[in-house]
Amino acid sequence: MSDTITKTFIQENTVLLNDYLKRHLPEDIANEQLSSAMQYSVLAGGKRLRPLLLLAMVKTFGGSINESTLKVAASLELLHTYSLIHDDLPAMDDDDLRRGIPTNHKKYGEAVAILAGDGLLTLSFEWLATAGLNTNTTVKLTRDLAQAAGAAGMVAGQVSDILGENKQLTFKQLKQLHRQKTGALIKYTALATNDIVNPEVDNQKLLIQFAESFGLAFQIYDDLEDVVGTQQALGKAVRKDANEHKNTYPGLRGVPQTILDLKKCVQYCHQALSKLEKNHVSTELLQGFLNYFQLD
Ligand code: GRG
């Protein structure tokens, strides 16, 4: 049941988000190459997981999906896309393909790709500032997004990842890296929802717990898919040598333990949702998001 509700929600809101992004990404900035490069990566698709999760959380707590909340959600996608463009650069992961097409720097060259990322990062904050929410909420959202994306969040995780590439990280360090690199933006979906809809304090904490576990599960799942196909993971048929990937769960923990780690994270998500249900919050929509982690 939750699966159908969530699938419909995702289908409908992906259309809304894509349409919003297409209509509002600037076409008239001074340099045509720059606007083209910014549009190229944002409109290349992607799951839109972070903005969808944010909108689903807002809806769960009785908020509406309107021009303001769509703009807040879309601003998060801009920021996420900037991080992918920069992550793909030769100085970082040096990737050729992203979202099924050549990476931004492969298409536009390194300098324009860096600047397209910079443009998206700053535009993200402009959209947040002009989303039409009240001043107090806007200030809180700005603070939360800056903290999640910046030197205490995603940027810190990226640095640890790059500097730790040829080192054996401890499990604690790896968890922290994942929490910052991937988890912080996903946690922001809960913080932003709390800023916008202001649920009871107890429920705010549970929503954050859900998002933190979701973020870790998301990264672990991505790591697992990288090493083994998901179906193969269940059959434990290893495609690549897991030890090649030092800064990943499978690299450090091995595939069987990583599958257990993932299950544990998903279980924590369910626990947070069950507690919300006890507090009379209907969580079917959020439960459906957990089906992303196909375990069995
Ligand atoms: C450059 C400061 C800076 C940070 C980059 C997000 C990130 C930090 C690096 C991405 C590395 C990576 C591939 C991590 C695995 C999990 C992940 C974040 C995947 C990409 O996100 P998806 O799967 O992508 O949501 P789509 O394209 O669907 O939006």
Walk me through the structure.
The structure is a single chain. This protein is mainly alpha-helical and 296 residues long. It contains 14 helices and two strands, in the order ααααββαααααααααα. Strands 1-2 form a two-stranded antiparallel ribbon. Helix 3 packs across helix 9 (171-197) and helix 4 (67-87) runs antiparallel to helix 6 (110-129). A hairpin with a 2-residue loop joins strand 1 and strand 2 (101-102). It binds geranylgeranyl diphosphate. The site of geranylgeranyl diphosphate (GRG) has 14 residues, from helix 4, helix 8, helix 9 and helix 10.
List keywords for this structure.
296 residues, binds geranylgeranyl diphosphate, mainly alpha, 14 helices, metal ion binding, two-stranded antiparallel sheet, magnesium, Polyprenyl_synt_CS, Farnesyl Diphosphate Synthase
Task: Count the DSSP helices.
Answer: 14
CATH topology of the largest domain: Farnesyl Diphosphate Synthase
Percent of residues in β-strands: under 5%
Main β sheet profile: 2 strands, antiparallel
**CATH architecture annotation of the largest domain:** Orthogonal Bundle
- Secondary structure class reads mainly alpha
The radius of gyration is 19 Å
The string of secondary-structure elements, in order, is HHHHEEHHHHHHHHHH
What best-fitting shape do the alpha-carbon axes yield? globular
Task: Name the CATH superfamily assignment of the largest domain.
Answer: Farnesyl Diphosphate Synthase
Output the strand order for the largest sheet: 1-2
CATH class label of the largest domain: Mainly Alpha
Number of domains: 2
